[in-house]
Amino acid sequence: MTGPTTSADRRGKGTVVDAIVQALADDIISGNLTPGTKLDAQTMAERFGVSRTPIRETFGHLAAMGLLTHRPNRGVIVATVSSDDLSDLYEAMAELEAALARLAALRMNSDQRQTLLELHQDSVHLVRDGTADEYARYNQRFHALIFEGAHSSQLQQLAEATRHRLSPFRRAQFRLSNRVSKSWEEHDAIVRAILAGDADGVARLMRLHVQTVSAMSAEFVAEHQQATGAKRKANT
Amino acid sequence: MTGPTTSADRRGKGTVVDAIVQALADDIISGNLTPGTKLDAQTMAERFGVSRTPIRETFGHLAAMGLLTHRPNRGVIVATVSSDDLSDLYEAMAELEAALARLAALRMNSDQRQTLLELHQDSVHLVRDGTADEYARYNQRFHALIFEGAHSSQLQQLAEATRHRLSPFRRAQFRLSNRVSKSWEEHDAIVRAILAGDADGVARLMRLHVQTVSAMSAEFVAEHQQATGAKRKANT
DNA sequence: GATGATTTGTACGTATGTATA
DNA sequence: ATATACATACGTACAAATCAT
Q1: How close is the nearest chain A Cα to the Cα of B15, in Å?
Q2: Distance separating alpha carbons of residues A84 and A71, to the nearest angstrom
Q3: Which of A43, A175, B36, B179 sits at 20 to 30 Å (Cα–Cα) from B26?
Q4: With contact defined as beta carbons under 8 Å apart, do A68 and A168 qualify?
């Protein structure tokens, strides 16, 4: 009996592939899977109790997200992000966010300005009393509001994709010394510029803000280099 | 025997999926497949002499590239680019090119500046004597040189991907009235600003340049709507 | 290097869900 | 509202490429 009935309980929910994409993305982003590790479909299939077909599809999605690198006929490996790649990605992020902030200064409606201001002001207590996670959540919303305020969905999509790729590296920066209070001050200047409609000013401020994050990330990665293992030149 | 002989000639190259992705992307970009056309895996499988599995994967890649739209349980269709989407894409293009031009003004080395200047000056005769195709080729190289001069590979990749998506719409704009001479003048100002190292100035000029192209494209598309659009009823 | 083992890539079948007649 | 047709999602089978010996 080739019973394709598949023992997998069909949990009336979303697809198996999506669930595995999430799980593997988490593993990679959390650093649980170090860059360069080879993933083979067979093992993953067993680990998740499915066949190789959905695993292959999963690999495709993750490769499209830049988390895996696909080598024809040779399987996939966890993508290696060199420190050059990293600063390059941050530079793209800085320019994208600067462009979005500029547009936001020109286009945000009054509701959006109000919401941004409230979010930012309400967060002031996090600087002293909040956890790194709480601040990270506020930070996420802050940038998301600006993205939306730009009313430029293509640019927004590019920025979100880039932000997503960087998330593993941005993760822990708020644990650094007094990064939180500096970050909040930078946000403060950005909010003021947006409310004042100062398009060029806010672009400059946002670019600097992201560059600062980039430097913090690089510092953090350098400190934790032995853990990530990407210290060697690797390929390219 | 169900003849798994796989008639497909294995052209010692990469994977079948990659080849089909290329082929279909070309068909879509060249306008050979009109937006809204439904593609079903079965037919494509027959057309390319493969089974549905690689076709499925191909659809996934093309959807990720924005060339196909995936409607849950209703198959995929060639992505329809509404005129809103179009101006959105152009806006993203404008911001990306502006950012790259800004960086190019700051970072181009003297060889690159020299090459850009020569290309641009040598092209002056195309304004009066060249064909639209010749000018388009020069135009392509002009922008490519600026991309390279920015030394920012991630941003460059994003810009190239966006440029690629827009290519079907940018295609014929140089046939419009005196678009060529206006375009050349805009390029001229851009070259001067880059050579002068005027980062903010060139960003502004480039943004305006792409916005102009956007307006031309919209005009052209509006004029030719009957040709690209409803000529074939297709299946909807 | 050749050869067998491992693993990727592709073919194809079928159960289940979703839309449409 | 029911039936039919179709798309999706996943399984298994086998061919071809890579790798380890």
Answers
A1: 7
A2: 21
A3: B179
A4: no
CATH superfamily entry for domain A83-227? GntR ligand-binding domain-like (1.20.120.530)
Taking the CB of residue A203, how many other CB atoms lie within 10 A of it?
A: 25
Contact status, residue A135 vs residue A126, Cβ threshold 8 Å: yes
**Three-state secondary structure call for residue B62:** helix
CA A192 from chain centre, in angstroms, equals 26
Q: How open is the CA angle B123-B128-B130, to the nearest 5 degrees?
A: 60
pTM of the model: 0.80
Q: Do A72 and B14 touch (CB under 8 A)?
A: yes
CATH class of this structure's domain A7-78: mainly alpha
Q: What is the pLDDT of residues B58-77, one digit of tens each?
A: 898 888 888 888 887 888 89
What are the two backbone dihedrals, phi and then psi, of residue B230, each rounded to the nearest 5 degrees? Answer: -90, 10
Task: Write the CB contacts of B210 (distance below 8 Å, at least 6 apart in sequence).
Answer: B90, B93, B94, B97, B98
Quickly state the pLDDT bin for A1 (edges 50, 70, 90): very low
Q: Which residues of B touch A87 (CB under 8 A)?
A: none
Scanning every strand, the nucleotide with its C1' closest to B8's CA turns out to be: C10
